[in-house]
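Reopening this ticket.

The earlier resolution said the output was attached, but the attachment link was broken on my side. Pasting everything inline this time so it's all in one place.
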Amino acid sequence: MRTLIHTAFVSLDGVVDSPGGGPREPHRSAGWTFQDIELIEEVYEIKGREQQEATAMMLGRVSYQDLSPVWPGMAEFAGYKAMPKYVVSSSLTQDALAEDWGETTILRTLDDVAALKETDGGPIVIHGSATLARNLSDAGLIDRYHLLVFPVLLGAGKRMFSDTDKAKQNLRAVESATYANGVTKLVLDVVR
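Inline output:
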């Protein structure tokens, strides 16, 4: 069974909306991971490790459409270019896929994601994709979280978790660190 990992930049109040900024990120605080927080390279070590350890990447449609024109040409994301990608979307068409970003498969439902998890292979990392990640979490399909928690309250925006009424879910911390700029790294396994 494959491990599904959600990796996210998250504010202390649970917002994952528009952390990097950019033209398609309309949040009023777009780019909040770079604003008023000292850049410390060590904080982002986990991002490099994810490229080395993951064997595939999963995205929702919006994140795919935002990242596919940019990431293929960025040296810091070269590890993702070669690995298979899965886009979960009920509307994206095959002809809308980027030609220069490697093998990409469209999954139409959460059942398709569950079936993919049952195949042989290594970890699959989910980037961005707030709506997809919430739905996967609610369906019990996420196995691990890689979080960089920023010491900021954004007040509004897409939240990491839904407010769906569901049973308690325990998590087990397997790695953590707090950096001089106040960012906290949390690696959490879902306890089954």
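Reporter confirms the inline version is readable. The longest helix spans residues 45-53. The mean pLDDT is 92.
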